[in-house]
Task: structure prediction
Amino acid sequence: MKIECTFCRRRRPDFAFAPDGRCDQCQLEKDRLNVGGRPVLTWHDIRGKRAKLLAACDWTQQADVDDAVSLAWQPYRQSLRDVTNDFDEPADVVWPSPPS
Result:
């Protein structure tokens, strides 16, 4: 049996609801908020963003791209890979700027 969540209006199986009436997805979002209402970042979030940033500039490393362009983007891409090693907490991460 499916029930509509009163928060997001998605229809979910009845076992997917928390005692406060939130579906499991809404509960996850609620749990990710700290007291100030700002999202709490996790390393999973950081890795997800890093993957998107790397994918967005994959074209720079293709064989048909000029060597000057490819070389200009390599330090940026390496900085993205090093983000998880260079910072102690996910909230401290400062993202590198792509080359202009």
Q: What stands out?
A: The CA atoms of residues 19 and 47 lie 32 Å apart. Residues 43-92 form one domain. The helical segments are 24-31, 43-56, 67-86. Strands lie at 2-4, 11-13.
